[in-house]
Every structure is written in structure tokens, then in C-alpha cells.
Amino acid sequence: MSTCSNCGREIADGETKCPVCGKEISDQSNEKAQVRAVPNIPRRDPDPLPEHPASGGASGGNFSKILLIAAVIIILIYVIFLRK
Q: Is the pTM of this model over 0.70?
């Protein structure tokens, strides 16, 4: 079985026209898409991402948070002792 190039319905072998739209089946062999040869060009894979970013990253952010918390604690202790 083949399909009609006009309406897409299945056509039984030996039919000369599509039973739905009436298109000639002999025309269908001329309308088949021709396959063109494509040269075998190797694909270039994208550059892989670095495993650890050079600038800080997550560990640099954690260090900054710890430093900020330590500074706040030191300032609070300093202020508490100066009030006495």
C-alpha cells in the first residue's frame, strides 16, 4: 500500500487514482523527494564546561558569608563591651 501525495490517504496496490481525491497515482512516482548525498562532516562538540569555575564560585560565596557573620559578631561584642 502507498499513500496519496495530495490527500495523504492510503491507496491499495494496483489503483490508478486515489479513491478520495481522484489524483492520478502514476504522477506520484515523479513527485517522490529525491535524497541528496550529504558529505560526512564531523561535528564539533561544544567546549566542555570547567569543573570548577576560576572565580570564587559556590565556595567563594560561602567564605564571604562566613566572613560577614564573623564581622557582625565582632562588632556586636565590641559594642556590648563599650556600653559597660
A: no
